Amino acid sequence: MGKHDSATTIWFALKLRLILAGLVMLRLVQPTANAAAGATYDLVVYGGTSAGVVAAVQARRMGKSVVVIEPTQRLGGLTTGGLGQTDIGNKAAIGGIAREFYRGIKLHYDQPSAWKWQRREEYRDGGQTRTDTGEDTRWTFEPSAALRVLNDWVTTNRIEVAYRQRLDRSTGVILSVATPPRIESIRMESGKVFQGRMFIDATYEGDLMAAAKVSYTVGREANAQYGETLNGVQPGQARFHQLVKGVSPYVKPGDPASGLLPHIDPQGPGLEGAGDRRIQAYCFRMCLTDHPDNRIPFQRPAGYQDSWYELLLRNYEAGEKAPPWINSSMPNRKTDTNNRLGCSTDFIGQNYAYPEASYAEREKIIAQHRLYQQGLMWTLANHPRIPEAVRREVARWGMCKDEFTEGQGWQEQLYIREARRLVGDLVMTQHHCQGREVAPDPVGLAAYTMDSHHTQRYIDAQGHVRNEGDVEVGGFSPYAIGYRAIVPKAQECGNLLVPVCLAASHIAYGSIRMEPVFMVLAQSAATAAAHAMDEQLPVQRIAQPRFRARLEADHQVLIWTKRK
User: Fold this and answer.
1) Percent helix, strand and coil across the chain, each to the nearest 5
2) DSSP string covering 14-47
């Protein structure tokens, strides 16, 4: 070989090395260079609820890249949005990362610095959420404490979170033409695109699920659809949280010609057991305090509507005597305040449009709920037609200066008790709750009473106001939720999991719809997503024995073996 040939060979070798180095660099910078087209992740989680965060934690533990997309500026959904009185039914049914959360809550309150407004020994929780002696978890907490735990998880697990990003629900979900279809990417209203191998819808509304065109439902099924007895219209079951008998629904009491007061459905109640599009009422789970240095007194809101509270006032004049709330004690002289009695924080019948509404329409519905509840609290604390004892008790409470500071104590998160629900190859029903059917592919347990809040106010045969929709039936052991209830039908989408708006009838969802259960199901969903990636299969076809073994290794509780 001559000098010229040798030089040529060296030149080509150097050029090849430069080309290869360039290709390597191109691959390394690809996600940044293609930011407009969208980064690619193993798992894209839409919805930064507590379930969404848990799903991301599990994905990271399994070595997968993940992003959580949260439409608001706050993680945690209801867990950080005021729901500090954990509803579960049986704490032993909760394992895995969900139980780690409640351990994190206890560790937080084990620190003396966590007790600003109250001495630790002064605080007493109670009921099913009581922290027993020697227990390593705590099940009651302030919203800020829950947020601290979840934010710490995001930091320690190096989870990417995209805040204030809302899905383009009309054309933002790009599906493949494969069979079954797969979600290739999702685009936000901002134009940002997120590409992923797997997707989880962890929202309370099921927006990603709906935009992916999988089967879902809204409202109450007829009893006949699944052979249930507690679904559909239920005036016969509506015994609790009622108005005092004899309250007139008319503007002029007893005079139908004067017209109806607001928020009474003239078409109600419907046929017993029949299906409808009504959904159980929403409210804000208020965090109140009676500490004078941290309390914001209730204010009469701008836009206050006197007529909205006429039923409340008439109800007291008809004999009601107690404040209309469940004012559960939280640490630091705070509360988780929930609906109770016939006229309370639930804005009954004013949320039917919410699940399918546009973002703008939802914001109006949320604003109306906030206006109603702000006006309710001011009325209870100040109106002369409210009994003095009730006024005195309510007026000593107020919003917290150190919670939800951007809203002066009022949160952004509305209590979305139900919205859309997936329809999968398995639909959880009353039969599963009561043990007549058992899901053979468990991914977690539910343990709460079948619980629906009221869905409507109507006029009974005597011409008086009644509430309808409340169902509270328990007395059963924890039961398994099946894997097929958190994935779409096999032919509809091969890379989507839905652990929050899962497949359940209205009444079964009333039992399942608890924050710790959503967290449990989200961990299982993320595990399934990782297995589907590794096995290169649709989520419906993953190897169940291997999947179940991983769930058990991660301390998920799948079978209830304890005594009732």
Assistant:
1) 35, 20, 50
2) HHHHHHHHHHHHHHHHHHHHTTTT-EEEEEEEE-
User: Partners of 49 in the beta sheet?
Assistant: 76
Q: Is 0.90 surpassed by the pTM of this model?
A: yes
pLDDT on residue 563: 54
| Coil, helix or strand at residue 520 | helix
Nearest CA to 42 among 34, 33, 50, 31?
31
Tell me 521's DSSP state. H
- Residue type, position 364, single letter: K
What does the block give as tokens for 48?
A: 């930064």
Measured CA to CA, the distance from residue 554 to residue 185 in angstroms comes to 30
Q: Which helix or strand (DSSP H or E) is residue 198 part of?
A: strand 193-201
Q: How far apart are CA 150 and CA 515, in angstroms?
A: 14
Can you spell out the DSSP letters for 451-498? Answer: EE---EEEE-TTS-EEEE--EEE-----EEEEGGGSS--TTT-SSEE-
List pLDDT tens digits, range 172-185. Answer: 999 999 889 999 99
Q: How far apart are CA 359 and CA 302, in angstroms?
A: 23
Whether the CA torsion 106, 107, 110, 114 is positive or negative: it is: negative
